[in-house]
From TrEMBL, chain A:
Gene source species: Pseudaminobacter soli
Listed name of the protein: Sulfite reductase
Keywords: 4Fe-4S, Heme, Iron, Iron-sulfur, Metal-binding, Oxidoreductase
Highest rank taxon of the organism: Bacteria
Nitrite/Sulfite reductase ferredoxin-like domain location: 52-110, 335-398
UniProtKB/TrEMBL annotation, chain B:
InterPro entries: DUF2849
Pfam families xref list: DUF2849 (PF11011)
Name this protein carries in UniProt: DUF2849 domain-containing protein
Region named Disordered: 81-102
Compositional bias per record (Basic and acidic residues), positions renumbered to this chain: 89-102
Length: 556, 102
């Protein structure tokens, strides 16, 4: 993975010192909250319901064991013994004291991490496929390009005060695991007929109040133009994006209001000015960054087949986990492992200090020291020899992280919601917990098959509810929580926005409503091979409405 | 009826303005404003506390008395006064010596 060079070290150190000074002056009363607020946000410090919150960037979700151990250490020393992994592949601490934050940032800097640009109207942490570098189906590792974008966008003077925040996601496979079509820019790394690398470029996707699927404005952009083209897009956005209305300030609104043809024309025109200039990526630079992401030296471990076979016979738990949480790797003797942070009845994405440390140990011992955070709020060991899978499973059982539910209904995305978040309208975590408990039976979950359930505590949609096969949005109605259900969303290469199925449900009704939707699917699906989303696409909302609202639905 | 709440500057802890004119960590014991004049007085206190950097995010919130205990009308404020509903081991609710509001 990428290692800081001297410049990076000096830069992060200087920023940490600068913010430490700002905190000191704030605590001494030398600067007001109004003056301090933008400064703290630039360093990832929010104020939530119970305390400050620190959001730490995990570039494209990639970590090594030293870093994860440090995240665990911070959780223990400065927080309340846990952290929350988010849909942005970041981690959030819910309870840090402002006076401790300089020390936390210094600890983070010691392992090449920081919290810069995790807030504000700038280019945020670039996200990527969590199986990047391991996936059998990728044409190339997208992370070198994410890293190039990270370096280019870090304190970029022109793009530090955009109309609104800006999110870029990159994938290197046809199968989109990075939800690129609901990002401001989505990049799909691919090869052209001549075998050269480049990107399909999507623009103007997003969730929140106005969910929109991104439009493809280029089918193939040669890799050397990554920065010049991205700059062209951002220039057009920076110039024309609406600053008069916060709710209309994202690039998706600009694309929508301008029209995709006219917008692409503007981008192309801007790009003509830039494409042969200094932003053109020299091949040597791309190679130098790519070298940081060179795959580990995979030695042949052909004994894995036999080991896995035996272990499956010995342990039903292992067998189920293998079927659900282990993904094919580009090397036949290896596999990628999903560590579910969705134990039955647990808060999605939360991990304790000791779990983080233990996972770091496992990664060091069995996974070439590599880890990923997925936008689905799980941890990933991208490279595990199949021969070591049983040992990894046993180690995960020890720390209660061997739940075999990856991609199933209890693998729920949920934002912090009203239990923590100052912007929330309703709780999300307890809803996730109750649904998870209702569907606790693994046998039942596996019968239901792939089902992406996503919950947000307000319309900002951090919990990606718009693109859940089943989405749940918490709203506040007359002082109480109400949950709207959407169906048919999807965040993969066939991205779609879910449709509201009907009137919302109270907190005590929502789990039953979800169960009704699921039972309806089981009744109307063609057979077990037809996934929930495919059944929904075939039949539409009607059978689900009928089941949820009965005659009321017919009357409507 | 309204009470005055904020978060303490140094550590972000949720606090309320008390009948004995301190910022306390429990909603019980908050000074209650029952009329417009009292609300304005609390508002001025909040503004002063913000200005002299004791607290941030100052708000007057609606409450009712349930069996003599203060209960915020909005769930948001109920959760602030108790702690995360999914983690009863955290927040005020985990420290009964600080709060009986949970
Ligand atoms: S979706 Fe709303 S409630 Fe959930 S984390 Fe985002 S802003 Fe907070």
């Amino acid at each position: 993975m990428y290692r800081y060079d001297e410049f990076d070290h000096d830069f992060v150190k200087a920023r940490t010192a600068e913010f430490a000074d700002q905190v000191e002056r704030r605590l001494a009363g030398e600067i007001t909250e109004e003056q301090f607020r933008p400064l703290r946000l630039m360093n990832g410090v929010y104020l939530q319901l119970h305390a400050y919150m620190l959001r730490v960037a995990i570039p494209y979700g990639t970590l090594n064991s030293r870093q994860l151990r440090m995240l665990g250490h911070i959780a223990r020393k400065y927080d309340k013994g846990y952290g929350h992994f988010t849909t942005r592949q970041n981690i959030q601490y819910n309870w840090p004291a402002l006076s401790d934050i300089p020390a936390i940032l210094a600890d983070l800097a010691s392992v090449e991490m920081h919290a810069i640009q995790t807030s504000g109207n700038c280019i945020r942490n670039v996200t990527a496929d969590h199986f990047a570098g391991a996936a059998a189906d990728e044409v190339a590792d997208p992370r070198p390009y994410a890293e190039i974008l990270r370096q280019w966008s870090t304190v970029h003077p022109e793009f530090s005060y955009l109309p609104r925040k800006f999110k870029i996601a990159v994938t290197g496979a046809e199968r989109d695991r990075a939800a690129i079509q609901v990002h401001d820019i989505g990049l799909h790394l691919k090869k052209n007929a001549a075998g050269e690398l480049g990107f399909a470029v999507y623009v103007g996707g997003g969730q929140g109040r106005t969910p929109i699927v991104a439009k493809k404005i280029r089918d193939f952009l040669p890799e050397e133009h990554l920065l010049s083209y991205t700059t062209a897009i951002l220039r057009v956005y920076n110039l024309h994006g609406r600053r008069d209305n916060k709710y209309k300030a994202r690039i998706k609104i600009l694309v929508h209001e301008t029209g995709v043809e006219e917008l692409s024309r503007q981008v192309e025109a801007e790009w003509q000015e830039l494409k042969d200039g200094e932003l053109k990526l020299p091949e040597a630079d791309v190679q130098a960054i790519t070298a940081y992401f060179a795959p580990p030296a995979f030695v042949a471990r052909p004994e894995g087949d036999e080991a896995v076979k035996q272990a499956r016979l010995d342990s039903r738990g292992f067998s189920e986990w293998l079927a659900q949480n282990v993904t094919t790797h580009k090397h036949p003797d290896y596999a990628a492992v999903t560590i579910s942070l969705k134990g039955i009845g647990e808060a999605p994405g939360d991990a304790s200090d000791s779990q983080m440390e233990a996972v770091a140990d496992i990664a060091e011992k069995y996974a070439f020291d590599e880890l990923r955070v997925s936008h689905e709020q799980n941890l990933i060991l991208p490279h595990v020899a199949r021969a070591d899978l049983k040992a990894v499973y046993d180690a995960l059982v020890e720390i209660d992280l061997a739940t075999a539910n990856s991609g199933l209904i209890s693998d729920i995305i949920a934002c912090p919601g009203l239990d923590y978040c100052a912007l929330a309208n309703a709780r999300a975590i307890p809803v996730a917990q109750e649904i998870s408990r209702r569907f606790a039976s693994l046998e039942r979950q596996r019968d239901i098959g792939e089902l992406k359930l996503k919950i947000s505590g307000c319309i900002n949609a951090c919990g990606h509810h718009h693109v859940g096969h089943i989405g749940i949005l918490g709203v506040e109605k007359k002082g109480t929580e109400l949950y709207q259900v959407t169906l048919g969303g999807s965040a993969d290469e066939n991205t779609s926005i879910g449709e509201i199925v009907g009137r919302g449900f109270g907190p005590e009704e929502i789990t039953d409503a979800i169960e009704t939707v699921v039972e309806t699917y089981l009744k109307v699906r063609l057979d077990r091979s037809e996934k929930f989303i495919d059944t929904y696409r075939r039949l539409g909302a009607a059978p689900f409405k009928e089941a949820l609202y009965g005659s009321e639905a017919k009357a409507a | 009826m309204k009470i005055l709440t904020a978060n303490r500057l140094t550590d972000g802890e949720a606090v309320w303005f008390s009948t004995d004119h301190r910022w306390i960590e429990s909603i019980e014991g908050s000074e209650i404003a029952a009329d417009k004049a009292a609300e304005e007085r609390l508002e001025a206190i909040g503004k002063a506390a913000l200005d002299n950097n004791q607290v941030v995010d100052v708000n007057l919130i609606d409450i009712q008395l349930v069996d003599g205990e203060i209960r915020p009308l909005r769930l948001r404020e109920q959760i602030r006064a108790a702690g995360p509903s999914n983690r009863t081991d955290l927040g005020k609710q985990a420290r009964p010596e600080v709060s009986r509001a949970a």
